[in-house]
TrEMBL record:
<protein>
    <recommendedName>
        <fullName>Carbohydrate-binding domain-containing protein</fullName>
    </recommendedName>
</protein>
Length: 232
């Protein structure tokens, strides 16, 4: 059974031989927790070499793959603070005013990793950071589902078994700056403003308004994870 975040937190999980391809084949459904603020399922695991993140989003997934991607930050002190902590964003589906085709999703944006001077890396990089993703429309679903896997070498994070971390998942939509910094005046729309759109059902209009408003806003959450030890 998939769990709501209010019901459970992710547990320490030792998982070996994870193939980072976005298929989520190595992950069980009950390992995922749902966050309502981002409409996103997520879980985490590790082995002796990597920290693994797995994500599944089937409600307004376009906020990730049409706009600003998913930003993953690790706070190694267990605090809820992104400042000066290592983070990775993928994909960047927009470059300035240009829409980036899926076949060009080959760049990771990163910062605050000791020993890495670059701010952008190819997905096939010398540091061992790996990403994989899939996008599809499930049967009877009106929206695309986006699945994402990330592997970060523990050596880059300076982490060891049993250590507790805090982590943040942030979806920025098309806003580079936070809403608190730029203000929200005039940013939100209602059904009434679009109710006269021809040949469009109420359900379709409500979905459109929801997606526009969500893309205008930053949504994120914090959680914690204790690195697992190898089972005997």
């Amino acid at each position: 059974m998939l769990l709501n975040k209010s019901e459970a937190q992710i547990s320490s999980c030792w998982k070996e031989s994870v193939v980072i391809d976005g298929e989520l084949a190595e992950w069980k459904g009950e390992e995922f927790v749902y966050d309502e603020s981002t409409w996103l399922w997520y879980t985490m695991a590790n082995d002796e070499n990597f920290l693994y993140l797995a994500v599944r989003k089937n409600k307004h997934a376009g906020k990730i793959f049409n706009w600003g991607g998913l930003m993953f930050t690790v706070n190694r002190k267990g605090k809820k603070n992104r400042a000066n902590e290592p983070w990775i964003t993928f994909p960047r589906a927009v470059d300035g005013s240009r829409k980036v085709p899926e076949k060009e999703w080959t760049v990771l944006e990163i910062d605050n990793f000791e020993g890495i001077k670059e701010s952008k890396l190819n997905i096939y990089n010398e540091y061992g950071i790996q990403v994989g993703w899939t996008k599809f429309k499930a049967e009877d679903e009106k929206e695309d589902t986006y699945c994402y896997e990330l592997a970060i070498p523990l050596s880059l994070l300076k982490l060891k078994a049993k250590e507790m971390i805090s982590f943040n998942i942030l979806l920025r939509g098309f806003r580079e700056d936070s809403p608190a910094k730029r203000g929200r005046a005039g940013m939100y729309f209602t059904f009434e403003q679009f109710k006269d759109v021809p040949n469009t059902s109420r359900e379709e209009i409500e979905m459109m308004v929801r997606d526009i408003n969500d893309s205008n806003d930053w949504t994120d959450f914090w959680d914690t994870y204790r690195l697992a030890t190898k089972p005997d």
